[in-house]
Write a structure and sequence with these properties.
With 419 residues, the chain is of the alpha+beta class. The protein has 12 helices and 16 strands. 31% of the residues lie in helices and 32% in strands.
């Protein structure tokens, strides 16, 4: 019963270079489905230029117009389709009903050990290979030895769910060794044990750094050391609430500066706040700005009429538009540390491609990474994923200067935001 499984996700490729590819999803609905689908799209390095969402609570219809960023990015469209299809509930009624009360098991974590000769941009190059192989970095520990060698420990999950096979593990190690060439000393991949649990905690942050990263005060500057023009653009975000237009839905009209992952951030926040989007339209207006119309309900099918609930939802959404990621540079004794933080979904999933973007920005600046780690940090409001990069001091790039630190924050943030 229902539509053919091959028609659950349809991908219509662009006719002209630069035109968007159209992804159409037509399947049974489930809580947070739009967020889960947009997360996969972001994970593949795709940018949503337009979007339409419609659901009656049982069945949904989603159309996304996407382009790769950068345009030279090679996208495995077949693999993307498989990932999207695997996220959609089955069209078979018996299977669909059984899934409503069954949570998906957490993905299996594997430990990848890469031992290399050090060089500029090495960490990003490894990260890029892992992204191309659809391997998601859950945790990482990077250590540089005194003799200019690097031991990288990546705790990864497989988007294709094939790392349990010897062929997939061997293929991964061989591909890494081939691309890294003479710099690669050894590469090992195995099922992770208790090592991943050790990586969960985040070493204590200085109070002033924690306040800077996790503050939810919207009145303060978007990110310390950000350029004034960027801060001014972000502060133009507005949310209008209308409870009169529709008898069954609350209308949210959002206008804000465009940024990478914007649609994912809005849908993630809606999912975490138990908000269902019955109809949504995403479109571009003036250059670098977006207009988003969302007809929403509570999960019980009722409008949101309580002033406190409306205020809370708007505050959360605006915070995501102003502060989707937090970036700062701090001193760690004699060393300089770059810290990047992003909120974690209530499901426990972190934001895609953050490690990729940060290492790419540092590579472009010519800054070497002495050590790196990813961990979780909990505040009263939510859980955060914290990326810590201990930067290598070089005579040609004095990291202690405010100018250098401002440039690092600015470049990293612009890369993360897609500006």
């Amino acid at each position: 019963m229902g539509i053919a499984w091959d028609d659950v996700v349809l991908i219509e490729h662009a006719v002209k270079t630069g035109d968007p590819t159209v992804i159409t999803i037509n399947c049974p609905d489930k809580t947070g489905l739009g967020c889960d689908l947009c997360r996969i799209v972001l994970e593949f390095g795709l940018y949503v230029t337009r979007g339409d969402f419609a659901t009656d609570g049982k069945w949904c219809y989603i159309v996304l117009w996407v382009v790769p960023r950068p345009s030279s990015l090679k996208v495995d469209w077949g693999s993307l389709k498989n990932r999207l299809v695997s996220t959609c509930p089955s069209c078979m009624i018996s299977f669909y009903l059984s899934q409503q009360s069954t949570a998906s098991p957490p993905p299996t974590v594997y430990l990848l050990k890469v031992f290399c000769l050090d060089r500029k941009g090495l960490l990003h190059d490894i990260t890029k290979i892992l992204c191309e192989l659809e391997l998601t970095i859950q945790r990482v520990k990077v250590m540089t030895t005194p003799d200019d060698k690097v031991l990288d420990l990546f705790f990864i999950t497989d988007g294709m769910d094939l790392l349990h096979t010897k062929h997939r593990r061997d293929e991964t190690c061989e591909h890494l060794s081939d691309v890294l060439g003479e710099y690669c000393i050894s590469c090992e991949l195995q099922l992770s044990g208790t090592e991943c649990e050790v990586q969960q905690g985040c070493p204590s942050l200085p109070q002033e750094v924690a306040e800077e990263l996790f503050s939810c005060e919207l009145s303060k500057e978007a990110v310390p050391m950000s350029s004034a023009s960027d801060t001014a653009k972000l502060k133009k975000a507005t949310i209008t609430v209308d409870n009169l237009l529709s008898p069954a839905h609350t209308l949210l009209q959002i206008q804000c500066v465009d940024q990478k992952g914007l649609i994912y951030d809005i849908l993630r926040t809606s999912k975490d706040c138990d908000i269902q989007i019955a109809f949504g339209r995403i479109q571009s207006t003036a250059k670098d700005y977006r207009t988003i119309d969302l007809f929403i309900q509570r999960t019980d099918g009722k409008k949101i009429i309580d002033d406190e609930n409306i205020k809370y939802l708007c505050s959360r959404l605006k915070e995501e538009m102003l502060h989707p990621l937090r970036v700062t540079v701090a001193s760690r004794g004699p060393d300089t540390e770059l810290l990047v933080a992003n909120p974690v979904e209530l499901s426990g999933k972190g934001r895609p491609r953050v490690f990729y973007d940060v290492t790419f920005a540092l590579k472009k600046l010519g800054i070497c990474i002495f050590s790196a780690a990813i961990a979780r940090h909990s505040t009263a409001e939510r859980q955060w994923e914290v990326y810590r990069f201990r930067l290598d001091e070089r005579p040609e790039y004095p990291l202690a200067s405010r100018r250098a630190r401002t440039e690092i924050v600015d470049r990293v943030k612009k890369t993360l935001m897609g500006w």
